[in-house]
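A reminder from the course coordinator: this example appears on the midterm review sheet, so study it carefully.

Given structure:
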Protein backbone atom coordinates (compact mmCIF):
# COMPACT_ATOMS: atom_id res chain seq x y z
CA UNK A 1 0.00 0.00 0.00
CA UNK A 2 1.37 3.43 -0.94
CA UNK A 3 1.67 6.23 1.57
CA UNK A 4 -1.16 8.06 -0.20
CA UNK A 5 -3.43 5.02 0.04
CA UNK A 6 -2.64 4.77 3.74
CA UNK A 7 -3.43 8.46 4.18
CA UNK A 8 -6.76 8.17 2.37
CA UNK A 9 -7.73 5.26 4.62
CA UNK A 10 -6.80 7.33 7.67
CA UNK A 11 -8.77 10.38 6.53
CA UNK A 12 -11.82 8.26 5.71
CA UNK A 13 -11.86 7.20 9.38
CA UNK A 14 -10.97 10.55 10.97
CA UNK A 15 -12.55 13.89 10.20
CA UNK A 16 -10.60 17.16 10.09
CA UNK A 17 -11.54 20.74 9.25
CA UNK A 18 -9.81 22.16 6.17
CA UNK A 19 -9.68 25.56 4.48
CA UNK A 20 -9.21 25.71 0.72
CA UNK A 21 -8.55 29.19 -0.63
CA UNK A 22 -9.34 29.72 -4.30
CA UNK A 23 -11.83 26.87 -3.89
CA UNK A 24 -13.83 27.75 -7.02
CA UNK A 25 -10.75 27.59 -9.20
CA UNK A 26 -9.43 24.69 -11.22
CA UNK A 27 -7.12 23.12 -8.62
CA UNK A 28 -9.12 24.35 -5.63
CA UNK A 29 -12.30 22.64 -6.80
CA UNK A 30 -10.44 19.33 -7.24
CA UNK A 31 -9.10 19.60 -3.69
CA UNK A 32 -12.62 20.28 -2.46
CA UNK A 33 -13.95 17.26 -4.34
CA UNK A 34 -11.28 14.93 -2.94
CA UNK A 35 -11.72 16.12 0.65
CA UNK A 36 -15.51 15.86 0.61
CA UNK A 37 -15.31 12.33 -0.81
CA UNK A 38 -13.11 11.49 2.18
CA UNK A 39 -15.85 12.83 4.49
CA UNK A 40 -13.80 15.82 5.60
CA UNK A 41 -15.23 19.19 6.65
CA UNK A 42 -14.19 21.94 4.23
CA UNK A 43 -14.40 25.71 4.33
CA UNK A 44 -13.80 27.36 0.98
CA UNK A 45 -12.95 30.97 0.11
CA UNK A 46 -13.13 32.59 -3.32
CA UNK A 47 -13.82 36.05 -4.74
CA UNK A 48 -14.51 34.69 -8.26
CA UNK A 49 -11.86 36.85 -9.89
CA UNK A 50 -10.79 33.71 -11.76
CA UNK A 51 -12.78 30.97 -10.01
CA UNK A 52 -16.15 29.85 -11.36
CA UNK A 53 -19.40 29.14 -9.57
CA UNK A 54 -20.08 26.24 -11.91
CA UNK A 55 -17.00 24.46 -10.54
CA UNK A 56 -18.53 24.49 -7.06
CA UNK A 57 -21.88 23.36 -8.42
CA UNK A 58 -20.15 20.53 -10.27
CA UNK A 59 -18.43 19.31 -7.11
CA UNK A 60 -21.55 19.58 -4.93
CA UNK A 61 -23.64 17.69 -7.46
CA UNK A 62 -20.99 14.99 -7.80
CA UNK A 63 -20.37 14.22 -4.12
CA UNK A 64 -24.04 14.06 -3.04
CA UNK A 65 -26.09 15.69 -0.35
CA UNK A 66 -24.59 14.35 2.90
CA UNK A 67 -21.03 15.09 1.88
CA UNK A 68 -21.92 18.41 0.26
CA UNK A 69 -23.43 19.50 3.58
CA UNK A 70 -19.91 19.43 5.05
CA UNK A 71 -18.86 22.28 2.77
CA UNK A 72 -19.11 25.89 3.96
CA UNK A 73 -18.42 28.62 1.41
CA UNK A 74 -17.20 32.14 2.24
CA UNK A 75 -17.33 34.56 -0.68
CA UNK A 76 -14.61 37.14 -0.26
CA UNK A 77 -11.05 38.22 -0.93
CA UNK A 78 -8.09 36.78 1.00
CA UNK A 79 -6.66 40.31 1.13
CA UNK A 80 -9.51 41.15 3.52
CA UNK A 81 -8.35 40.25 7.06
CA UNK A 82 -11.94 39.74 8.23
CA UNK A 83 -12.58 37.18 5.49
CA UNK A 84 -9.44 35.28 6.51
CA UNK A 85 -10.40 35.43 10.17
CA UNK A 86 -13.89 34.04 9.57
CA UNK A 87 -12.67 31.32 7.22
CA UNK A 88 -9.87 30.13 9.55
CA UNK A 89 -12.07 29.53 12.60
CA UNK A 90 -11.51 26.00 13.88
CA UNK A 91 -9.42 25.01 10.84
CA UNK A 92 -6.60 22.47 11.20
CA UNK A 93 -5.14 22.49 7.66
CA UNK A 94 -5.02 25.22 5.02
CA UNK A 95 -4.57 24.46 1.33
CA UNK A 96 -3.76 27.84 -0.18
CA UNK A 97 -4.52 28.00 -3.91
CA UNK A 98 -5.90 31.55 -4.25
CA UNK A 99 -3.72 33.54 -6.66
CA UNK A 100 -3.63 35.34 -9.95
CA UNK A 101 -1.89 32.88 -12.24
CA UNK A 102 -0.40 33.33 -15.71
CA UNK A 103 2.94 34.76 -16.73
CA UNK A 104 1.39 36.91 -19.51
CA UNK A 105 -1.17 38.37 -17.09
CA UNK A 106 1.61 39.36 -14.70
CA UNK A 107 3.51 41.07 -17.52
CA UNK A 108 0.41 43.12 -18.31
CA UNK A 109 -0.54 43.94 -14.70
CA UNK A 110 2.29 43.22 -12.23
CA UNK A 111 0.65 45.17 -9.40
CA UNK A 112 -2.51 43.05 -9.43
CA UNK A 113 -0.34 39.91 -9.41
CA UNK A 114 1.64 41.19 -6.43
CA UNK A 115 -1.44 42.16 -4.42
CA UNK A 116 -3.19 38.83 -4.92
CA UNK A 117 -0.17 36.57 -4.66
CA UNK A 118 2.00 38.30 -2.06
CA UNK A 119 -0.26 40.55 0.03
CA UNK A 120 -2.94 37.87 0.03
CA UNK A 121 -0.47 35.21 1.12
CA UNK A 122 0.73 37.31 4.05
CA UNK A 123 -2.90 37.79 5.15
CA UNK A 124 -3.35 34.02 5.09
CA UNK A 125 -0.17 33.48 7.12
CA UNK A 126 -1.19 35.99 9.78
CA UNK A 127 -4.72 34.62 10.07
CA UNK A 128 -3.37 31.08 10.32
CA UNK A 129 -1.11 32.11 13.16
CA UNK A 130 -3.99 33.66 15.09
CA UNK A 131 -6.19 30.60 14.48
CA UNK A 132 -3.35 28.24 15.50
CA UNK A 133 -3.66 26.25 12.28
CA UNK A 134 -1.57 23.07 12.25
CA UNK A 135 -0.10 23.51 8.76
CA UNK A 136 -0.43 25.55 5.56
CA UNK A 137 0.27 23.95 2.21
CA UNK A 138 0.63 26.66 -0.42
CA UNK A 139 0.90 26.66 -4.20
CA UNK A 140 4.26 27.78 -5.52
CA UNK A 141 5.32 27.36 -9.14
CA UNK A 142 7.99 25.98 -11.44
CA UNK A 143 8.37 29.55 -12.67
CA UNK A 144 10.59 30.29 -9.64
CA UNK A 145 13.43 28.47 -11.45
CA UNK A 146 13.61 31.35 -13.93
CA UNK A 147 16.70 31.26 -16.10
CA UNK A 148 18.33 28.36 -14.24
CA UNK A 149 19.63 26.00 -16.99
CA UNK A 150 19.58 22.83 -14.87
CA UNK A 151 17.81 19.77 -16.26
CA UNK A 152 15.99 18.47 -14.36
CA UNK A 153 15.11 21.26 -11.95
CA UNK A 154 16.10 20.53 -8.37
CA UNK A 155 14.73 22.44 -5.40
CA UNK A 156 18.10 23.73 -4.19
CA UNK A 157 19.05 25.58 -7.42
CA UNK A 158 17.18 28.66 -8.62
CA UNK A 159 17.82 31.22 -11.33
CA UNK A 160 16.58 34.77 -11.72
CA UNK A 161 12.79 35.14 -12.14
CA UNK A 162 11.67 35.95 -15.68
CA UNK A 163 8.26 37.44 -14.88
CA UNK A 164 6.40 39.26 -12.09
CA UNK A 165 4.39 36.07 -11.54
CA UNK A 166 7.59 34.11 -10.94
CA UNK A 167 8.85 36.82 -8.60
CA UNK A 168 5.59 36.77 -6.60
CA UNK A 169 5.84 33.01 -6.07
CA UNK A 170 9.48 33.26 -5.04
CA UNK A 171 8.57 36.01 -2.57
CA UNK A 172 5.89 33.73 -1.12
CA UNK A 173 8.50 31.05 -0.49
CA UNK A 174 10.73 33.58 1.25
CA UNK A 175 7.88 34.81 3.44
CA UNK A 176 6.87 31.24 4.28
CA UNK A 177 10.38 30.46 5.47
CA UNK A 178 10.65 33.73 7.37
CA UNK A 179 7.29 33.31 9.12
CA UNK A 180 8.25 29.77 10.07
CA UNK A 181 11.37 31.06 11.78
CA UNK A 182 9.93 34.23 13.32
CA UNK A 183 6.29 33.28 14.02
CA UNK A 184 6.39 29.49 14.18
CA UNK A 185 3.97 29.00 11.28
CA UNK A 186 4.26 25.52 9.80
CA UNK A 187 4.05 25.74 6.01
CA UNK A 188 4.99 23.64 2.99
CA UNK A 189 5.37 24.96 -0.56
CA UNK A 190 4.56 22.88 -3.63
CA UNK A 191 6.16 23.98 -6.89
CA UNK A 192 3.59 22.97 -9.47
CA UNK A 193 4.73 22.15 -13.00
CA UNK A 194 2.10 22.90 -15.68
CA UNK A 195 -0.98 21.41 -14.05
CA UNK A 196 -3.88 20.36 -16.29
CA UNK A 197 -7.17 18.50 -16.06
CA UNK A 198 -10.97 18.80 -16.00
CA UNK A 199 -12.55 22.16 -15.09
CA UNK A 200 -9.58 24.17 -16.37
CA UNK A 201 -10.92 27.18 -18.24
CA UNK A 202 -10.18 26.96 -22.01
CA UNK A 203 -11.27 30.54 -22.67
CA UNK A 204 -9.76 33.96 -22.16
CA UNK A 205 -6.47 35.65 -22.94
CA UNK A 206 -4.61 33.84 -20.14
CA UNK A 207 -5.90 30.29 -20.61
CA UNK A 208 -3.27 27.56 -20.11
CA UNK A 209 -2.09 25.80 -23.23
CA UNK A 210 -3.76 22.40 -22.80
CA UNK A 211 -7.35 23.59 -22.21
CA UNK A 212 -6.91 26.31 -24.83
CA UNK A 213 -5.86 23.82 -27.50
CA UNK A 214 -8.62 21.41 -26.51
CA UNK A 215 -11.20 24.15 -26.84
CA UNK A 216 -9.81 25.33 -30.17
CA UNK A 217 -9.62 21.85 -31.68
CA UNK A 218 -13.15 20.97 -30.63
CA UNK A 219 -14.50 24.27 -31.98
CA UNK A 220 -12.45 24.31 -35.19
CA UNK A 221 -10.55 27.47 -34.24
CA UNK A 222 -6.87 27.95 -35.17
CA UNK A 223 -4.22 27.11 -32.57
CA UNK A 224 -0.92 28.87 -31.90
CA UNK A 225 2.44 27.60 -30.67
CA UNK A 226 4.75 30.32 -29.37
CA UNK A 227 8.26 29.62 -30.64
CA UNK A 228 9.31 26.80 -32.96
CA UNK A 229 7.53 24.11 -30.93
CA UNK A 230 10.69 22.61 -29.43
CA UNK A 231 10.12 24.24 -26.02
CA UNK A 232 9.29 21.56 -23.46
CA UNK A 233 7.38 21.29 -20.22
CA UNK A 234 6.71 18.78 -17.46
CA UNK A 235 2.90 18.53 -17.59
CA UNK A 236 1.18 17.24 -14.45
CA UNK A 237 -2.38 15.95 -14.18
CA UNK A 238 -4.41 17.55 -11.39
CA UNK A 239 -4.99 14.28 -9.53
CA UNK A 240 -1.25 14.15 -8.83
CA UNK A 241 -1.44 17.66 -7.35
CA UNK A 242 -4.32 16.66 -5.07
CA UNK A 243 -2.25 13.73 -3.84
CA UNK A 244 0.72 15.99 -3.09
CA UNK A 245 -1.38 18.49 -1.15
CA UNK A 246 -2.90 15.87 1.13
CA UNK A 247 0.43 14.16 1.72
CA UNK A 248 2.14 17.47 2.51
CA UNK A 249 -0.64 18.55 4.87
CA UNK A 250 -0.63 15.37 6.95
CA UNK A 251 3.02 14.28 6.85
CA UNK A 252 5.03 14.21 10.09
CA UNK A 253 7.18 17.28 10.70
CA UNK A 254 10.38 15.42 9.82
CA UNK A 255 8.96 14.51 6.39
CA UNK A 256 8.36 18.12 5.39
CA UNK A 257 11.65 19.49 6.71
CA UNK A 258 12.84 20.64 3.24
CA UNK A 259 9.72 22.88 3.15
CA UNK A 260 9.53 23.10 -0.67
CA UNK A 261 8.84 20.29 -3.15
CA UNK A 262 8.57 19.92 -6.93
CA UNK A 263 5.24 18.43 -7.97
CA UNK A 264 5.28 17.02 -11.49
CA UNK A 265 5.71 13.75 -13.37
CA UNK A 266 9.42 14.07 -14.10
CA UNK A 267 8.77 13.77 -17.85
CA UNK A 268 9.38 16.14 -20.76
CA UNK A 269 6.90 16.92 -23.57
CA UNK A 270 7.66 19.38 -26.36
CA UNK A 271 4.84 21.69 -27.36
CA UNK A 272 4.56 20.14 -30.82
CA UNK A 273 4.43 16.62 -29.38
CA UNK A 274 1.80 17.76 -26.91
CA UNK A 275 -0.31 19.32 -29.64
CA UNK A 276 -0.14 16.12 -31.67
CA UNK A 277 -1.19 14.02 -28.68
CA UNK A 278 -4.17 16.27 -27.97
CA UNK A 279 -5.19 16.43 -31.63
CA UNK A 280 -5.02 12.65 -32.04
CA UNK A 281 -7.19 12.01 -29.01
CA UNK A 282 -9.75 14.63 -30.01
CA UNK A 283 -9.90 13.07 -33.47
CA UNK A 284 -11.44 9.95 -31.89
CA UNK A 285 -14.41 12.16 -30.95
CA UNK A 286 -14.24 14.61 -33.85
CA UNK A 287 -12.51 13.15 -36.95
CA UNK A 288 -12.24 16.55 -38.65
CA UNK A 289 -9.62 17.56 -36.05
CA UNK A 290 -7.13 15.00 -37.35
CA UNK A 291 -5.58 17.27 -40.00
CA UNK A 292 -5.20 20.39 -37.83
CA UNK A 293 -1.75 21.97 -37.44
CA UNK A 294 -0.77 24.87 -35.19
CA UNK A 295 0.48 28.26 -36.37
CA UNK A 296 3.95 29.20 -35.09
CA UNK A 297 4.42 32.66 -33.59
CA UNK A 298 7.26 34.48 -31.83
CA UNK A 299 8.09 33.33 -28.29
CA UNK A 300 6.45 35.30 -25.45
CA UNK A 301 8.47 37.34 -22.99
CA UNK A 302 8.83 35.61 -19.64
CA UNK A 303 8.33 32.07 -20.94
CA UNK A 304 10.92 29.45 -19.97
CA UNK A 305 12.35 27.38 -22.84
CA UNK A 306 12.65 24.03 -21.05
CA UNK A 307 11.26 22.90 -17.72
CA UNK A 308 11.42 19.38 -16.28
CA UNK A 309 11.30 18.51 -12.61
CA UNK A 310 13.21 16.19 -10.39
CA UNK A 311 10.58 14.70 -8.08
CA UNK A 312 13.07 12.73 -5.97
CA UNK A 313 12.57 14.95 -2.93
CA UNK A 314 8.77 14.61 -3.02
CA UNK A 315 9.04 10.84 -3.50
CA UNK A 316 11.48 10.42 -0.65
CA UNK A 317 9.99 12.74 1.96
CA UNK A 318 6.28 12.76 1.13
CA UNK A 319 5.81 9.38 -0.50
CA UNK A 320 4.52 11.15 -3.60
CA UNK A 321 3.94 8.78 -6.53
CA UNK A 322 2.19 10.37 -9.53
CA UNK A 323 -0.63 8.05 -10.59
CA UNK A 324 -1.22 9.76 -13.93
CA UNK A 325 1.31 10.30 -16.70
CA UNK A 326 0.62 12.86 -19.44
CA UNK A 327 -1.08 10.40 -21.79
CA UNK A 328 -3.51 9.06 -19.20
CA UNK A 329 -4.15 12.54 -17.88
CA UNK A 330 -4.99 13.79 -21.37
CA UNK A 331 -7.41 10.91 -21.87
CA UNK A 332 -9.29 11.84 -18.70
CA UNK A 333 -9.23 15.54 -19.52
CA UNK A 334 -10.35 15.31 -23.14
CA UNK A 335 -13.12 12.87 -22.23
CA UNK A 336 -14.40 15.38 -19.67
CA UNK A 337 -14.45 18.26 -22.17
CA UNK A 338 -16.05 16.10 -24.87
CA UNK A 339 -18.79 15.05 -22.47
CA UNK A 340 -19.55 18.67 -21.58
CA UNK A 341 -19.69 19.69 -25.23
CA UNK A 342 -22.22 16.97 -25.99
CA UNK A 343 -24.34 17.94 -23.00
CA UNK A 344 -24.39 21.55 -24.14
CA UNK A 345 -25.31 20.54 -27.67
CA UNK A 346 -28.17 18.41 -26.36
CA UNK A 347 -29.33 21.25 -24.13
CA UNK A 348 -29.32 23.75 -27.00
CA UNK A 349 -30.76 21.60 -29.76
CA UNK A 350 -32.71 18.95 -27.90
CA UNK A 351 -30.60 16.31 -29.63
CA UNK A 352 -26.98 15.61 -30.59
CA UNK A 353 -25.23 14.16 -33.55
CA UNK A 354 -25.33 10.44 -32.93
CA UNK A 355 -22.02 9.72 -34.64
CA UNK A 356 -20.35 12.14 -32.25
CA UNK A 357 -22.12 11.57 -28.95
CA UNK A 358 -21.86 7.79 -29.04
CA UNK A 359 -18.10 8.12 -28.88
CA UNK A 360 -18.23 9.78 -25.46
CA UNK A 361 -17.81 7.22 -22.68
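Designed residues:
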Amino acid sequence: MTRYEELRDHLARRQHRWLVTGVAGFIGSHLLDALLRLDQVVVGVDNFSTGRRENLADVVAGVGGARAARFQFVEGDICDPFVCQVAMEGVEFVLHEAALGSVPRSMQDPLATHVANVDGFIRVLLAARTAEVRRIVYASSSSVYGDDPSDPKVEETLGDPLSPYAASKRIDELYAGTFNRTHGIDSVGLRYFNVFGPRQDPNGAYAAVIPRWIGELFSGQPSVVFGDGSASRDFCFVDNVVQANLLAACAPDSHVAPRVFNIACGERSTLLDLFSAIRNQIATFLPSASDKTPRLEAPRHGDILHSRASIDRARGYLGYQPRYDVQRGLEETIRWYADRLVRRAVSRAGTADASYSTRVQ
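DSSP finds 14 helices and 13 strands in the chain. Residues 351-361 have pLDDT under 50 and may be disordered.
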